[in-house]
Design goal:
alpha/beta, Rossmann fold, 7-stranded parallel β-sheet
Length: 239
């Protein structure tokens, strides 16, 4: 895909991996639709993105609510008339363990990490299929390759994203829309640092490393699709 003038929706875009992806795609000439709940951080991102000379629409919204998801798509179509790329990045991680999972934490995790991804993909695919082109990229985690203790609900949600991606892939390919999944290993984000992981953070990847994976996937030939990328932190193969 030629990225110049494409329209990319990115969730969880105000910080961390989402922000890294937004800036990387802006450098490639994509117009950015940045979704998150923190308006102040979104406004800062908008300034950084527009410094590349492209358009950035920010949407301060809680995408766990389906009506908010529909609102995001409406804004994109009204502003740009199309959806070319969807990066399902928004996520939460709660340190719980099997006996520590509460209904409230479970619902928060599943609504953010899975429900929002599904319904955003559903709405975006409706638009992408009109043009017989598009790419949906879901951000999972290496915990989907081997669950880790003390992050039970998070592990389940990231496993579920793998199933979601496969279901989307089977549906979307008839419209020539690609679906890929990235499974990041340990990446230096505010969310992960909040978990007090017992390791040397110098070994962690950076958000821009995951952004490089996104750019690679989007730039592949229309004749092929890379379904999965698993970037591990060098010398540190944990979540």
């Amino acid at each position: 895909m030629i990225l110049k003038n494409k329209v990319a929706i990115i969730t969880g875009a105000s910080r961390g991996i989402g922000k890294g992806i937004a800036l990387a795609l802006a450098k490639e000439g994509c117009n950015i639709v940045a979704c998150a709940r923190n308006e102040e951080q979104l406004l800062k991102l908008k300034e950084e993105v527009e410094a590349f000379g492209i358009q950035c629409e920010i949407v301060q919204s809680d995408i766990r609510v389906i009506n908010n998801i529909k609102y995001v798509i409406e804004i994109v179509i009204r502003k740009f008339g199309k959806v070319d790329i969807l990066i399902n990045n928004a996520g939460v991680i709660i340190k719980d363990g099997i006996f520590g999972v509460t209904e409230k934490d479970w619902d928060l995790t599943m609504d953010t990490n899975l429900k929002a991804q599904f319904f955003l993909s559903q709405c975006a695919l409706k638009e992408m299929k009109k043009n017989k082109e598009g790419h949906i990229i879901n951000i999972s985690s290496t915990v989907a390759l081997g669950a880790k203790p003390e992050v039970t609900s998070y592990s389940v949600s990231k496993y579920a994203i793998v199933g979601l991606s496969e279901a989307l892939y089977q549906e979307a390919k008839k419209y020539l829309v690609k679906v890929s999944t990235i499974y990041p290993g340990v990446t230096d984000t505010e969310m992960l640092r909040s978990q007090d992981m017992p390791c040397d953070s110098d070994q962690w990847m950076l958000p821009e490393d995951i952004a490089e994976c996104v750019v690679f996937l989007l730039k592949t030939s229309s004749r092929m699709v890379v379904k999965d990328i698993v970037p591990w932190a060098t010398g540190y193969d944990q979540i």
